[in-house]
Amino acid sequence: MTGATGGFGRVIVLRLAAAGWDVVAGARDMDKARNLVAEAAERGLALRTVRLDVACEQSCRQALEESAEMTGDGPWALVNNAGIPQAGAVADVDDEQARRLLEVNLLGPARLCRMVLPGMAARGGGRIVNISSGLGRVPWPMGAWYSAGKHALSALTHCLRVEAAHLGIRVSLIEPGAFATPMLSRALNDLETVRNPANPGYTATTRLFTAVDRRVPGPEPVARTVETCLTARRPRPRYVVGRDARLLVPIHTLLPLAWTDRLKHAVTGLPRTPQPAAPPAPRPAEQAAAAKETA
Predict the structure, then answer these.
(1) d(CA 96, CA 121)
(2) pTM given for the model
């Protein structure tokens, strides 16, 4: 399990441990990992952790080796949950920030899938659960890189599901809406970091994220869905979780893009038409010609 110490990850690993699963929780911050183990122990649950930075190939390899040593074998299931938001307009997010998002949200999950496949195939099967987002199917202005990364993860998951079926490996995609996790507060920090005062989308998007953060439900439905993916005899290829995602995904799929564009303009405060610009100052030759015509 990646990204196990906060947000969806913490709730998922505690639920799986309570259900009797042998959980190895991947965490980049080992202080948070120790706190998670202590919290599990207070509930009478056994939980083990490994240091895992999904953006680092060596860290991924080392974490899987340690996991195999702990369990006597490689993982039967992999849950790719780690993710970061990187909010901001396309024009304001630089290459380094975009690469970091893609390393964590796309290349990290792909790398771990590639690494666990041989062991799962040798054991005759396994489960892979990739946690994407409803925004992977509803691209949202001021969060384009997050939507792009999750959209790519969705495509990768669907391809992997077909490629790994003959190995007995079931691959599922979970697309959550907004839930009460640190993700929205991180997105708000991103907006402040890259904010362009000339772009009106920042003010409206900050208000939107703040309002949503106050109203969203807890992440337990996502944890229940992960457990379903692991226990169902035939897990579904895709699970859309949350009222907002179940509403927005079909709307965005069925309505013309011109209509959904209008909705996004309205919500983000981004103008639909160019702002009137002052006419360019006439050049000296043009001024002379204009004066002659006037005379």
Answers:
(1) 36
(2) 0.90
Residue 293 lies in a domain: no
Confidence band of 12 (pLDDT split at 50, 70, 90): very high
Q: Which positions are annotated as active-site residues?
A: 146
Q: What is the chain's alpha carbon radius of gyration, rounded to the nearest angstrom?
A: 23
Strands 77-80 and 24-27: unpaired
Q: Produce one character per residue of 156-172: b if its CB has 16 or more CB atoms within 10 Å, e if not.
A: bbeebbeebeebebbbb
Model confidence pLDDT, tens digit, residues 103-157 = 999 999 999 999 999 999 999 999 999 999 999 999 999 999 999 999 999 999 9
Task: Name the token pair of 288.
Answer: 């002379």
Q: What's 133's domain CATH number?
A: 3.40.50.720
Q: Is residue 2 part of a domain?
A: no
Residue 295 CA to chain centroid, in angstroms? 67
List of residues 6+ apart from 295 with CB closer than 8 A: none
Q: 271 lies in a domain?
A: yes
Cα–Cα distance, 126 to 165 (Å, whole number): 10
Number of domains in the chain: 1
pLDDT tens by residue, 19-33: 999 999 999 999 999
28 lies in a domain?
yes
CA nearest to 77, candidates 11, 158, 180, 164 = 164
CB atoms within 10 A of CB 214: 9
Query: 3-class DSSP state for residue 95?
Result: helix
Domain holding 257, by residue range, is 7-285
- Collapse the DSSP code of 98 into the 3-class scheme (helix H, G, I; strand E, B; otherwise coil) and give the result: helix
